[in-house]
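Loading example: each entry is read as two labelled lines plus one structure line.
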Amino acid sequence: MTTSTSLKPPAPVPPVDPAPRRRSMEGAAGKAFRWAATGAGALILVVLAAVALFLILRAWPAMTTRASVLSDEISWFPDGKNLLQFVGPLVFGTLLSATIALVISMPVSIGISLFISHYAPRRLANSLGYVIDLLAAIPSVVYGLWGGLWLVPLLSPVWTWLSDTLGFIPLFSGPASDPPRVILTVGIVLAVMILPIITAVCREVFLQVPKLHEEAALALGATRWEMVRMSVLPFGRPGIISAAMLGLGRALGETMAVLMILSPGALYSFALLKVGQHQTIAANIALQFPEADPLGVSTLIATGLALFVITLAVNMAARAIVARRKDFSGAN
Amino acid sequence: MTTLSAGSAAGGGLDPSESTRVMLAGTDRRRRVTDRMMTGLVYVAFGLALVPLISVSWTVIANGIERLTPYFLTVSMRGVFGGMDSGGIYHAIIGTLLITGLAAIISVPIGLLTAIYIAEYGRGRLARAVTFFVDVMTGIPSIVAGLFAYALFAVVFGPGVRFGVVGAVALSVLMIPVVVRSCEEMLRLVPNELREAAYALGVPKYLTIIKVVLRTAIAGLGTGIMLAVARVIGETAPLLITVGVIDSINFNVFQGRMMTLPVYVYRQYSQGLVPCNDPAAICIPTINYDRAWAAALTLILIVMLLNLAGRLITRLFAPKALR
């Protein structure tokens, strides 16, 4: 996986140091090559800045237009609300779906990574990791298709049962909608989609646990689970947190699965089993964009900007945790 | 708990008392049960992860195999309407290949050079910033990448801009960080002795990188690029908003909308069931879903083929030192 490098201890620095004579030998071609490489690196920063810049540029008209004009000109813009009030429920829906996905996939992912790193026979472990990576290779639109046509009918009786038995909890208050194109179904599909990234990061972290910690725990008479609980999990905690945030970041931005499964609405609602309550930013953009007029596009880009800021914050926090951990991992 | 039992175990060795023995026996069973239970849960977790994998592959294959015929692969959707038993994905395959190919042409040089910068030249603040933001960039939502490409081209071509290159730029934003990450990893695997040997012979650094480092890592680089292509070839949302949909074949990435495979799957799915009112005409109510499944199967086959090819390249061409 792409994430694996960031967790490994920094590779030994290649011994460059070409004596002064070598530098002069490098000549114009060498300099050009060096500048090309540096330029490409700098381009990454430029692109990221450009993403923010162009989004702001295009979102500007919507942000500066009065709310009444927005609702007059854009057919799907709710009456009597301003841009912030329009984005609010979308942000809520985005966070809610991602949170559900995270709650479902987190324990499973930790279980899988433990299985691969500490439980499965060594020879099996690698191919098992590959099998999980395959989940990441399946395009999101296929998950949407699978969720919409296969999972939705299957879940219908399950959700009905859930609302009948646990309906007293507001989250599951019934009656459950049929077909269940609801946020809980979306959460399950999103959980499957973010499983590989969380698993990959957790596995890397669990494999890094110093052997001595584990052996010390075992020598004290710990069972395998106690060893995991006392040495592996505490050591891996920062890694687990950052894995969760990476998964969260991915779930926040998933578009197709939400678009193809959820029956949208725009409410602040915790009714997980009812349709027409939630919508996410990404799915709303994909739904409205193809038919939107310039001001509508501008409004959608403004919501996209909100999504960009949220995911950027989540991802930067996750990466910062991983990066800080690097300093410690060399200590053993 | 363990400190306690370990302490008493040591004590028990010196002075075996009945109480210690009882305590050890008592806790042991509970601990053993917990251990067993957690082992079971870990196995269950792994089993749970296999359920979607198996069910996705099974449903896609079972529903898509029937319609995936040579005919389906070689015709477009031009003039197809209602429940007609015709139409195919030729135009979508063309679009996917052209746009993804273009995205690769943009991303590979930039990504490879950035990887070289990080692995070979990078030092100091800029290198740290680049490394960090490449990681952050992998987290950009695909739809935001699409919005960015749209916003970029809308500045030049005005609003409502939709053609292949816009989609390729959107895909590049998603692809570059993946290329950088995997290529950097491969460059770091090249043993330093090779670089040192080249320096010792008086080869300048840039030639060492081009002739020694890149050549040694070539198999890994190929794999990384393959995997990056596989990653973006299934992206739907950015293409939906930057390239749009069309029923006919369009070879020109600089003009007009194009169809791509993922968008085709979504489009067929969203059209839903066809109402068949005329019993005389040939009409298949589920035709749109059937086409969606078949196209999804094609897409998965392409992605898996790319993945497999990537892994095969490493297996076959990797220098012995790296195996």
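The longest helix of chain B spans residues 18-64.
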